[in-house]
Amino acid sequence: MNNTWYDDTLINRFKQKEHLKNNCKCDVLIVGGGLAGLSLLYKLKKNNVDAVLIEENHIGSGASGRNGGFCLSGWAQDYHVLLNYLSEEEVVILEQIAASGVKWVKKKCLSEGYEHTNLQSGVLKCFLTNNIEKVKKVVIAQNKLFDQNEEFINKEKLSKYVCSDKYTCGVFRRDSFQFHPLNFMHALARDCSNLGASIFEKCKFISYQINSGKINSCIFNNNRVVNIQSEKIVFATGGYGGKEIKDLKSYWLPIKTFIGVTKPMGNELQSVLKKPFGFSDNRRAGNYYRVLPGNRLSWGRGISAIGNFSLLDLKKAISKEISYFFPELKNIEIDYVWSGNMAYASHYMPYVGALKIGNEDKNVFTIMGFGGHGMNTAPGAAKVLADFMLGKGNKYEVFNKFRRKWNGGLIGPYIAEMKYKYLQMQDYFDVA
């Protein structure tokens, strides 16, 4: 796994206070040191729950520390599609969960110990469409339904923020922001550790068994197997886990997205991106980009369910995409490039709650599958799951409406790839 720009700019790396040497017991075992797992750990420790977290690699080494660095409200699935699964009241609950995640992460970024998260407010979604009136109507409807303050931006005003003749209008999200996700992850891990939580890196989960109501998990660490006994277990492994548990593996697919970071640039970058906002476009798996410290441009693009791509090919593809939208930046050099796995279910919504709905394994939970929109939704979902585990609420049940669906097995990635190509074709005709 090649280094990202985040890896090379990580400040104050988390250091675990102890190593997993012997068998141990806890109330809750969390598997996965990404944002979902750490957020849940933090909320449980705040309520004096004896919780332990294990991570196969390092904190934030998965999607949580390799993403575009955007935190904005909403889910991977459009709200009007969610109405096919949920009542309007339930959709509002979902949006409240997502919005609460944005607020929580932002509050953390502005607190002591999180000084290196580099928070920048404002995300502008730019549209490549001729159906501008439809965009206006959606903004009005969502603002009314969710009590939001998103702002419709016409083409003339949009040109004051970003200079590209490809965009016809935009939607400004002033409550959303960009940040350094890996620095945030390590700060959050330190926060959890300071609360008394045990966090163990380089611990590979092998299997679990339930005996007399107790969950016995086998963990491989430092060339030997250690047992952790817990009352509950939560799988928060995202797009990098699931192989150990059949049910997890069959529920979702690992989908790759790609990010490049340019070499430092001069004034030409400020000539096209006139405000320090995060930018994205409205296409399915479209572009998302922002200015990084040192006058670099971070550019994310595309998804794929199959195959790997060479670093050279990714650099060429990203450079080509940048020059398409901004000819002034033609042939810009790409310094970093990487990919990351996102966990996608067929309905684009996460699995939060019992691993098997209605199964006797009522103390086996999952929180994963955020479809590339986890930087706000994962902490929000962690809050409602923690509340349920603490006997403080049942909002998490809204996620039960999104049933555990088979991912298609061996042909699942190819089906997903074909679906993505179909969505790309829809994008083409929407713009044409």
Number of domains: 1
Low-confidence stretches: none
Largest β-sheet summary: 9 strands, mixed
In sequence order, what are the helices and strands, one letter per element?
HEHEEHHEHEHEHEEEEHEHEEEHEEEHH
The shape is globular
Overview of this structure, please?
With 432 residues, this protein is α/β, with parallel strands linked by helices. It has a single domain (5-419), classed as FAD/NAD(P)-binding domain. The protein has helices at residues 5-8, 35-45, 79-82, 88-109, 132-146, 155-158, 181-194, 246-251, 267-272, 311-325, 374-389, 412-431, and strands at residues 24-31, 51-54, 70-71, 120-127, 151-153, 169-178, 198-200, 204-211, 214-221, 224-235, 253-262, 278-281, 288-292, 296-304, 334-344, 351-354, 364-368. Strands 3, 4, 5, 6, 11, 12, 13, 14 and 15 form a nine-stranded mixed sheet that branches. Strands 1, 2, 7, 8, 9, 10, 16 and 17 form an eight-stranded mixed sheet that branches. A hairpin with a 6-residue loop joins strand 12 (278-281) and strand 13. The longest helix has 22 residues, at 88-109. It is globular, with a radius of gyration of 21 Å.
Q: What is the element layout, followed by pairings?
A:
Blueprint: H1 5-8, E1 24-31, H2 35-45, E2 51-54, E3 70-71, H3 79-82, H4 88-109, E4 120-127, H5 132-146, E5 151-153, H6 155-158, E6 169-178, H7 181-194, E7 198-200, E8 204-211, E9 214-221, E10 224-235, H8 246-251, E11 253-262, H9 267-272, E12 278-281, E13 288-292, E14 296-304, H10 311-325, E15 334-344, E16 351-354, E17 364-368, H11 374-389, H12 412-431
Parallel strand pairs: 1-2, 1-10, 2-7, 4-12, 10-17
Antiparallel strand pairs: 3-6, 4-6, 5-6, 8-9, 9-10, 11-14, 11-15, 12-13, 13-14, 16-17
Helix pairs in contact: 2-7, 2-11, 4-11
